[in-house]
Amino acid sequence: RAVATLADVHAHWWGRAESIDAGTAPVAAHCDPNHLAKFFPEFADFVGEYLAPALVACYERVFSSIDALLADRLTPDNATLLHGDSHFWNFLYPKDARQNRCVIFDWPLWNTGLGGSDLAYMIALHLYPEHRRRFEPVLLEHYSQILAEHGVGYQQEDVWLDYRVGVIFGLLMPVMEFSWKIPPLDWMPKLEKAFAAYEDLNCQELLGSV
Fold it and tell me: How much is the pTM?
């Protein structure tokens, strides 16, 4: 239900993100990889031995390549409105699903970009690996079906590709929350889940293509 609601929002604004009549998203600058790269040395020092050298090297690759990867994938035709904090408890679930649908709330982190960023934040950064692996294909297929029902011409292969890009951006979320002085209890699990998805989905392949 939450995935369907997210797909409804994305489909409504698909290819029309530039027409959103609102001020600049307040969190946009804080999500910028170049901004977050300034905090990474302090972040890595704080995390210490929990962040293996190979993972530090992965972050360095992400910071050096992610702008080019996004430029390659994001166009005015596939940009949409992003919630930015689309975890499962930012949805109101109806008591009677036959009469009402989910409603998504808590929008202060809204932005525009690839729909896969919201999907990856919802699924890859909040489901533990075994749980994610079982439900990931079903949820992404359902998302693709909802887009198609709204007339969005986007193949399921593209949904998966943008989801993988979203997983890469998900690696930056712990760094952003660290920069906001959010307690590690919140972002450390995201770090573990994001890297698990990054490895499972061979996201390093995407960074090697730009």
Answer: 0.95
